């Protein structure tokens, strides 16, 4: 279903975005384990992955959550309660119609997949109905995406660098001055749940 616009925009978010890099798979396991079905929205995740080999990230994350986890496919429509992971060597983006799109455009912040293309495309599709999370990582990926999310009225959650295995990505996101929440990793999922269910 395409994102809604105009007067029928819901009060709560319509999608959760997650960006992570070094240390991110463990952080994703913890975050996703705290999201309980029936989750009313899809989750789109850009975790920096090695380009040169197949990934077992879906199997790893599936052991930690009751949500459905899969690698995103080009052109597919999203479903609530499903976690879509950017596949190796592809940016994960969202079309304005709501379908997912995979791109092999140039690396962003030396990474493909990267957070910024995901965040920037998602807010073009969903406007303010976005919750964007920046987790552990050693570079600045996600900072420009955070600015795009806030420019459209979305919500930004950043992992407290003190609880992050690598502080670079969270610190870059915090340095924008645009984070709505800076939270220990264990507190992010409960906050997402409250935001989604508050209405």
UniProtKB/TrEMBL annotation:
SUPFAM superfamilies: Methylesterase CheB, C-terminal domain. Its EC number is 3.1.1.61. It comes from the Bacteria. It catalyses: [protein]-L-glutamate 5-O-methyl ester + H2O = L-glutamyl-[protein] + methanol + H(+). The active site is at residues 21, 48, 141. It is an enzyme of class 3 (hydrolase). Keywords: Chemotaxis, Hydrolase. Residues 3-199 form the CheB-type methylesterase domain. This is protein-glutamate methylesterase. It comes from Streptomyces atriruber.
């Amino acid at each position: 279903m395409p994102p809604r616009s105009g007067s029928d925009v819901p009060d709560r978010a319509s999608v959760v975005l997650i960006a992570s890099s070094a240390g991110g798979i463990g952080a994703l396991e913890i975050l996703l384990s705290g999201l309980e079905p029936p989750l009313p929205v899809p989750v789109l995740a850009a975790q920096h992955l090695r380009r040169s080999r197949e990934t077992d990230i879906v199997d790893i994350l599936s052991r930690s959550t009751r949500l459905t986890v899969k690698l995103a496919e080009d052109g597919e429509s999203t479903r609530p309660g499903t976690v879509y992971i950017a596949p190796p060597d592809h940016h994960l983006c969202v079309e304005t119609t709501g379908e997912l799109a995979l791109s092999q455009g140039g690396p962003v912040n030396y990474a493909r997949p990267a957070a910024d293309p995901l965040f920037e495309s998602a807010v073009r599709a969903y406007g303010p109905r976005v919750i964007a999370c920046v987790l552990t990582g050693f570079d600045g990926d996600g900072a420009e995406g955070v600015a795009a999310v806030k420019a459209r009225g979305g919500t930004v959650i950043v992992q407290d660098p003190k609880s992050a295995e690598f502080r670079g990505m969270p610190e870059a996101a915090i340095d924008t001055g645009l984070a709505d929440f800076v939270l220990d990793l264990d507190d992010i999922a409960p906050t997402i749940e409250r935001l989604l269910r508050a209405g």
